[in-house]
Amino acid sequence: MEAVIFDLDGVLVDSETTWDEVRRAVVHEFHGTWRDESTRAMQGMSTPEWAAYLAHDLGVRLRPADVAQVVIERMARRYAEKPPIIPGGPDVVREVAKHWPVAIASSSPPLLIKAFLDITRLPVPTAVSSEQVGAGKPAPDVYLKAAELLGAEPKNCAAVEDTTNGLLAALAAGMAVYAVPNPHFPPDPAVLARTTVVGTITDLPAALTSQPDA
């Protein structure tokens, strides 16, 4: 194994419900219509993708660029008030970084990734947002870019994910995938079956070091 690449939302920060609350509020405030499937549909989407979804599919009466600005500004305020860091997550990254290069491959915009890294001061030299690549998850682009920046072969990387679309993205990149199932939005059992499942993020270091080639 050459490197370990972490997702952010749902793995290191408990932000999936915050994203959901903020987007729902924006949809209702700007005269759109929320759908039952909207939450899962947007998991893993890049910022341009989910902004277009809110504007075009859910009928929010703003241009996609303005939708993105409103949502991200509100998310940034939430982070500033109380970052929803998952207990033990930063310590796990520090422990893993003692053994392998680490990176973040996230659907969050660069502003929020930077806010998280500034708060935690983690030793993460490489962080990639799906805004910076061709497509959001479940496409593998963000994972492939992170591996490239680390100088690692994707097949020799481990990815840590929590949702169906994230797991699919890492699997499509050809990585060994470790799933920390999101309790709020449980991933598809059929997709989970293709991964190594760990109960919580704090179980990850032991799972990584237990592999024969670790």
UniProtKB/TrEMBL annotation:
Organism lineage string: Bacteria, Bacillati, Actinomycetota, Actinomycetes, Pseudonocardiales
The entry's keywords: Hydrolase
Hydrolase is among the record's keywords: yes
Listed Gene3D superfamilies: HAD superfamily/HAD-like, Putative phosphatase, domain 2
Molecular functions per Gene Ontology: hydrolase activity
The keyword Hydrolase appears for this protein: yes
Signal sequence, start to end: none
Name of the molecule in the record: HAD family hydrolase
InterPro entries per record: HAD-like_sf (IPR036412), HAD-SF_hydro_IA (IPR006439), HAD_sf (IPR023214), PGP-like_dom2 (IPR023198)
Top-level lineage group: Bacteria
